[in-house]
Amino acid sequence: MDELQKCRSRWMAAALLQIEKRMRKVNNYEKLQLLRTALKTELKIKQKKAA
Known about the structure:
Elements: H1 3-19, H2 32-42
C-alpha cells in the first residue's frame, strides 16, 4: 500500500469516527436479507455467482 492509500484510509477512518455518533441504527436490520430475497423473487432477479 503506497503512502497516498494509507492517507486515504486514515482520513476515511477519522471521518467515520466523527460521524458515527450521528448515525442511526437500522431497526430490524437482521431481516434485511429476508427483504432482499423477497424483492429478488418478486422482481425475478437472478443472483450472479461470484467467480
